[in-house]
Amino acid sequence: MFEVVAEDLLGRIGRLKTKSGKKIETPVFLPVINPVVQDISAKWMKENLKADIVITNAYILYKRLRDEALKNTVQGLLGFDGVVMTDSGGYQILEYGGVDATPEEIALFEEDIKTDIAVPLDVPTGLSDRRRAEESVEKTLKNLEATLRILHSREDKNCIWVGTIQGGVHLDLVSYCAEKVREMGFDMYALGSPTPLMEGYRFSKLFEMIITAKTSIEYGKPLHLFGAGHPMVFSFIVALGVDMFDSASYYLYAKDGRYFTETGTMKLEKMDYLPCICPVCSRTSIEELRGLSMKDRIDAVAKHNLYVCFKEIAEIKQAIKDGRLFELLEIRARSHPNLYQAFKYIMGRDDLLNLMEQHTPIYSRRGINLFDALSLNRPEARRAEKRLLENIFKKRAKRYAVLVPYTMKVNLEKIEKDLLKASLSEYDLLLYGSPYGLIPFQIKYVYPFSQTVFPQDLVLEERVIDIVVQQIENAGYKELIVVEARSPYLREAINRIIQKLHDKDVKINLTSLK
Ligand SMILES: [Zn+2]
């Protein structure tokens, strides 16, 4: 049903096949369609955005368009032959305090209208206090059980059934709920209630919720996130292992005159230009856009907002294929200080970084760009660092090492004759000035050492200095001959390394090769 075809961090390209044989590729963004008004139709989305999946609300269909949906199926009603997911009405509970339908009624209805991916009637936690959050989790679990019970009697099922995980900001409840749902055996999972966190720019909390849910379910099953708001967080939620997410914000924001960019939102009345060349923006000017009737203006901005969302998904997918999702996060993190803060928060979680390392390919077809200390947390860098420490710089037979700047053209004969006046076989020949620490000369072309691009002052980061010191200590060198570099950064780095080694039993000779 679900197959992972490429991975980077916890992000992945996957293929999901529905019960009727339709296929979609993940990660995927599902525009929310209000089935009654259909402001922007699913058909339009298919024709203009190549959307192959949308989400609509089963409860609204059940209350307002029941007969039509039963007669024509949900796809027929939407005029859309792609994959349709139906949310259950849980959102209405959050907004209006209740629904008058049972989980059993909604479940059978979703099967009968031939929904492709169906959500049981759950009870979203939202930003509830502890007591109400516990209640919402218990009620959700009860509803999920009731849903599975009623479905048990049906022979042929039309829907992929989604187990919803609630608990909100109470992470222990999220993991409790996820584990209970896991025991029930759903085909896929969905995590609820992030919208208020997104609106409050509480990204660290949002990411914590996702990490908690993700690590409590099977890795091989798809994870959906409800209400994933703004394109500036898409790359993050994908990197944390979310495969699908929906949002109505393209329309809600448009109603409020707010225009999406990949990194934020702009108010139409404060804009001088349209910084986009989507089919909407390339055919109009900001003045013309503002001059439209309210209805047409909302329609135009909502369509633009959708283009931005779909473009961002394409960028994310290409980044996964290229093994540079981390670099996209580094760029997107600069969208907002809170997002940058949240990025630093996830980079500080060793458990998460280890997990990302397990799922990131050993080799990628593109080189690696490192920018700053945060970049050193990317899986390729952590792996290279560990590999050097564990495989190369463990107790070595040689007592001596010659350290040469990695920028220098190394002439082995000259080093033997002029510098050592002895055979190099007595020495380890190491390159310094790499963000991975010291690199043995023989493996300098091994991935990722020579495929890494970085600013020279990166070697002055405390972490890099410490790696070099640790490598020297692990190897147990007694004497180092250091060929001085021209670069002031490398000279400073060596000085700091020498300072850190001053009370250790290592003799260091600085020299220059004439
Ligand atoms: Zn546009």
Description of the structure:
The model has no long low-confidence stretch (mean pLDDT 93). The protein contains 20 helices and 20 strands. It starts with a strand and ends with a strand. The chain is elongated, with a radius of gyration of 28 Å. The protein has helices at 42-49, 58-64, 66-78, 90-96, 103-112, 130-152, 171-184, 195-199, 203-214, 231-239, 249-255, 286-291, 294-322, 325-332, 337-347, 350-359, 379-392, 412-420, 462-475, 488-500; strands at 2-8, 11-17, 23-26, 28-33, 53-57, 83-87, 117-118, 160-165, 188-191, 223-225, 244-247, 258-261, 264-267, 368-369, 400-405, 427-434, 437-440, 452-453, 479-483, 507-511. With 514 residues, the chain is α/β, with parallel strands linked by helices. An eight-stranded parallel barrel has the order 4-5-6-7-8-9-10-11, surrounded by six helices. Helices cover 45% and strands 18% of the residues. The chain folds into two domains: 2-7 and 16-353, TIM Barrel (Alpha-Beta Barrel), CATH 3.20.20.105; 368-511, 3-Layer(aba) Sandwich (Rossmann fold). Bound molecules: zinc ion.
